Amino acid sequence: MIDRSGAAYVGNLGPVPLFIHPSAIILVFLAWMWAPTGSGGADIVAIILLLAVLVKAILLHELGHGFAAMILGARDVTITLWAMGGLCSSQRNHDRPVGEMFILAAGPAVSFALYGIGLGSLYALAHYRPDLLIDGGQATLLREFIVYTIVINFWLGVFNSLPIFPLDGGQFLYHLLRLFKVPWQLVHQLCFYLAVVFVVLLLLWRFHAGQGQIDGGMVYTVILLGFLLYNAHIYLMQR
């Protein structure tokens, strides 16, 4: 779904090779846009911390897909970090709906697990070591790290679970319909039109949440959802 020809190999995440596409620089922009600002402007420490948590959340999400694929015997599993997040690719001998659904569910499962771990850690520290969260009336870096982990992993899990092809939820629905022997053409049509409906709902929600303002976040959302719909149309309506 993306052209990985410009991606560079940067190392391994365990047994999984990691590539970074030049477009991943957009993630820095997102961290800058989402980070809180002080009286002097952008907080550099907050930007770096947010970027670190964002990249970690994306990579662990993709590793969930990768390890699930390896359990089912996939070969040449790779992860690519790029503008829209991450992409896990692999070579599989069989395209079986149940196996594909297991692989697709593994990513959001990891994100929600990290969300739960973050919540548990924040609760435990607040009760037993509050000094590690608040120092001199100010939130510590540890607290900010945990809060960012909670928020980012929750929304990463939720967003990827939406039935918008080619997100995990959209592909999960695609293989679920295949599992129930729904006619091929109807599967493609249902998945595409459901993706359109949820994209419109997301745009309306984002516009309402932003109080009608067209800011950087809204622009990125439009580009991301437009890219997803473009890929959905190419895969589902032109094959």
Brief write-up:
With 239 residues, the chain is α+β, with helices and mostly antiparallel strands.
SSE order and pairing:
Elements: E1 8-13, E2 16-20, H1 26-34, E3 37-38, E4 41-42, H2 44-71, E5 75-82, E6 85-91, H3 97-128, E7 134-135, E8 138-139, H4 141-161, H5 168-179, H6 184-209, H7 216-237
Parallel strand pairs: 2-5
Antiparallel strand pairs: 1-2, 3-4, 5-6, 7-8
Global structural class? alpha+beta
Helix content: 55-70%
Q: Output mean pLDDT.
A: 91
β-strand number: 8
Uncertain regions: pLDDT < 50 for 5+ in a row? none
Instruction: State Rg.
Output: 19 Å
Largest sheet: 4 strands, mixed
Rough outline: globular
| SSE topology string | EEHEEHEEHEEHHHH
Number of structural units classed as domains: 2
Could you characterize the architecture of this molecule?
With 239 residues, the chain is α+β, with helices and mostly antiparallel strands. It has two domains: 1-160, no CATH class; 162-239, no CATH class. It has seven helices and eight strands. The strands form three sheets. It has a four-stranded mixed β-sheet, covered by helices on one side. The protein has a two-stranded antiparallel sheet with strand order 3-4. β7 and β8 (138-139) form a beta hairpin. The protein is globular. The mean pLDDT is 91.
